[in-house]
Amino acid sequence: xxxxxxxxxxxxxxxxxxxxxxxxxxxxxxxxxxxxxxxxxxxxxxxxxxxxxxxxxxxxxxxxxxxxxxxxxxxxxxxxxxxxxxxxxxxxxxxxxxxxxxxxxxxxxxxxxxxxxxxxxxxxxxxxxxxxxxxxxxxxxxxxxxxxxxxxxxxxxxxxxxxxxxxxxxxxxxxxxxxxxxxxxxxxxxxxxxxxxxxxxxxxxxxxxxxxxxxxxxxxxxxxxxxxxxxxxxxxxxxxxxxxxxxxxxxxxxxxxxxxxxxxxxxxxxxxxxxxxxxxxxxxxxxxxxxxxxxxxxxxxxxxxxxxxxxxxxxxxxxxxxxxxxxxxxxxxxxxxxxxxxxxxxxxxxxxxxxxxxxxxxxxxxxxxxxxxxxxxxxxxxxxxxxxxxxxxxxxxxxxxxxxxxxxxxxxxxxxxxxxxxxxxxxxxxxxxxxxxxxxxxxxxxxxxxxxxxxxxxxxxxxxxxxxxxxxxxxxxxxxxxxxxxxxxxxxxxxxxxxxxxxxxxxxxxxxxxxxxxxxxxxxxxxxxxxx
Length: 532
Prior knowledge:
By secondary structure, this protein is α/β, with parallel strands linked by helices. The chain has helices at residues 176-185, 202-216, 236-245, 255-258, 261-279, 309-322, 339-343, 349-369, 380-384, 390-397, 430-439, 469-474, 485-488, 493-508, 514-518, and strands at residues 3-4, 12-15, 24-27, 30-33, 43-45, 54-57, 60-65, 74-75, 80-81, 102-103, 106-107, 149-154, 160-161, 165-170, 190-192, 221-228, 250-254, 285-288, 293-298, 326-329, 406-410, 420-424, 444-449, 462-466, 481-482.
């Protein structure tokens, strides 16, 4: 197998390996002579594409040809432009990438364009002309929610953790040196410093406070030591009192009240040791999988993300939802060009409208700035990996959400109020997105990557799923699972999805991830602004 055709309507195919110029290959039964070398994962034209014609992948438009493209040509940023996020074209340059006009909660697709979700278009390496399938026919087992369990820590508020951390948390950046010193003195704790907590106002300050409170009270955290300076914008004292009133095991120190940094460090080390001793008394117990919340993330994506790892995670997401659990799909800027597919799956018209509105809101930021979204979406690494436009990236990104209805649309770092698949409004920045989903209650995060990302989280295990086997071998110490086996070994997509699901359960039971073993503890809060 030399190429993959993601949908019969597509006018491009994806190279499975590096293909040299001059070679003649077969795509969907047709001979195609390669006019240029095609890197693995990149696209080639299966037939001539005229300038201005839509380029189709997954049965959906992923851009528009900016030049005449002959059969066998390399199809990429040099001859294709995005239809979306093109502020550089001015107010008249924006077109709907879904092939039609936005209508309420969805998008009317153009004539002949498929609305098949991208993950359903490719069940595995079945040849050069795979037919669209439905997950309903993929033979996925339904996990009985009343019998499927993991071993977790039941907290006072009824929520369940999969880790038993003691968190030493700065309420403001001025307390960072003290927090870091306590972490060095008691390395068993999670010492979390950051750059927020002062010179913030309004919704921006409120959002930072909510994220810090949610981390301090997260079910993966047995106890928290909150460190403030004493003159910050963040209401550290009130925050500590409110958390204690909610039943959170929390202690608080203020540097200016303790007599300075050294005094606070000494007392903080003593308190941290006390909290560790108390946390050690907690015992794991069987918990239904319905109480598990899993955040879904992709970063450092490549062209294989939408073919292997993301669809496999989508199947794992479906299995979790079938077990009564919750999956959070985020990174709304990476819905651009695919928002109509998610909106069509919304459990209510209002949820669908909110998905579309949020997506257009992020796109409008690029329009206001007068920039081509390709300056950041896709990133330079994404482009090197074969992704050409935001539409193409989005088609693959939403595959992480599987095929179940979208039950709810959440603001940044808010907890779900419904079980099943939910969407959270986060930016595409990996760390800001993971932070938000964990603040929203995710005990575990599944993170797919094609270029190789070691990003972790201070309090939640992050499972890394490689999209291609070459990168998995090269960065094996940073990866947990290889989804490239779908291409290299012919593993059925359904089996890969079950592997991801089994890994989620194993990690929930206490198995450490590569990011945890590395000590990767990235943390970032999206800034609403202004910063004063």
